[in-house]
Structure formats: C-alpha cells, structure tokens
C-alpha cells in the first residue's frame, strides 16, 4: 500500500511534467550570421538621433574640452553604444562632474544600452564626454566630427560645435 506521503511526492513529480516538452532547435535564439549585424541591430544608424551636440573648451593649457549631447533611440529595438571617437581628440571618454573618475565611469560610452523609445541627455553637471589632447581644429566657432559606434558595426557621425570656456575671454589653444 502506498503511504499518503509517497502518493503526494508522486503527484508533485507528475505535476512537474504536465505541459512540459523537450526544447526544440526552433526555441533557441537566432544565431548571429557572420558578416551580418546581430539580430535587431541593423537599424541602429537609422533609429538613433543625436542632437544638441557641443563641446566647451575647459582647460586650453591642458587641451581638455567637455562634450554634451542628447541621444534618442526612436526604434523598436534596444541598441548598444560601444564606442565614441573623434579624430580631433587624442582620447575621448566619459566623466561625471559630481563623481570620482574611475576606469568604469570612463568606459561608460563603450557599453551604454539605449532602450527602445528612450531619450538620454548628457548635460553639463552630469555624465558627459571628455576630449583630451585635442588638436588645433578644436577652436571656438568651429565644428568637429564625433562618431558614435553601435553593436553590429553601424555608426552615426555628428558635428559638435566648439564653444569657448565662459570663464575666459579667449580660450583658443
């Protein structure tokens, strides 16, 4: 005779298998195709809008400028920003005005997730770009190209207007 406890354990084991089915190959995520962007990433260049982009010369003697911008993902898929470059900047990295700079904070723009239908603002006083070791093209009144790189290989290049440091009458290098 089956004890009440054995019957309960048997019923629970059977209940765990009800509706279960073996995993099928069709259930697996679509694999990446060599030479093709990861699924959902081909439209990053069209989905992403970068605006209100400008740099301010902060320390002309050390050739440091700060960059600010708004980035919007208008698409239906999340996108991953995996780098920002500018030929005029020897180094371009993230910084937060009110936080200690670390390798992790500096690498923010190397792995920034941009959820679908989201606007992110990088203003003065918050997270922003630092352009260090800039060349002679970084002068007030000019523009420099800055390229945003996305997972899958798409890019967006936008002009950043260069503004002088408001604390100095002439901040040209």
Defining traits:
disordered C terminus, 3 helices, disordered N terminus, Lxx211020-like, 9 strands, 173 residues, PCuAC_sf, Immunoglobulin-like, single chain, mainly beta
Describe it for me?
This protein starts with a helix and ends in a 10-residue tail after the last strand. Strand 1 and strand 2 (64-73) form a beta hairpin. It has a domain at 44-163: PCu(A)C copper chaperone (Immunoglobulin-like), CATH 2.60.40.1890. Strands 1, 2, 3, 4, 5, 6, 7, 8 and 9 form a 9-stranded mixed β-sheet that branches. It has 3 helices and 9 strands. Helices cover 13% and strands 38% of the residues. The chain is mainly β. Residues 1-30 and 169-173 have low confidence and may be disordered. The longest helix has 14 residues, at 4-17.
Work out the helicity level: 10-25%
Poorly predicted regions: 1-30, 169-173
Structural class estimated from helices and strands: mainly beta
N-C termini distance = 93 Å
The CATH class of the domain at 44-163 turns out to be Mainly Beta
Biased composition (Pro residues): 31-40
Signal peptide: 1-25
InterPro entries: LpqE-like (IPR007410), Lxx211020-like (IPR058248), PCuAC_sf (IPR036182), TAT_signal (IPR006311)
Organism: Nguyenibacter vanlangensis
In short:
This protein is mainly β and 173 residues long. The chain has helices at residues 4-17, 44-47, 103-106; strands at residues 48-59, 64-73, 79-85, 91-96, 112-114, 118-122, 127-132, 143-150, 155-163.
């Amino acid at each position: 005779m089956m004890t009440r406890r054995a019957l309960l354990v048997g019923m629970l084991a059977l209940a765990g298998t009800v509706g279960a089915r073996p995993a099928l190959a069709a259930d697996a995520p679509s694999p990446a195709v060599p030479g093709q962007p990861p699924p959902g990433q081909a439209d990053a260049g069209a989905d992403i809008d970068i605006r209100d982009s400008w740099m301010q010369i902060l320390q002309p003697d050390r050739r440091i400028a700060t960059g600010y911008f708004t980035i919007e993902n208008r698409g239906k898929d999340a996108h991953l920003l995996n780098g920002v470059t500018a030929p005029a900047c020897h180094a371009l990295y993230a910084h937060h005005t009110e936080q200690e700079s670390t390798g992790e904070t500096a690498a923010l723009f190397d792995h920034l997730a941009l959820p679908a239908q989201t606007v992110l603002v990088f203003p003065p006083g918050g997270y922003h770009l630092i352009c260090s070791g800039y060349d002679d093209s970084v002068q007030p009144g000019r523009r420099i190209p800055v390229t945003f790189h996305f997972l899958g290989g798409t890019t967006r290049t936008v002009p950043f207007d260069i503004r002088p440091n408001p604390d100095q009458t002439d901040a040209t290098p």
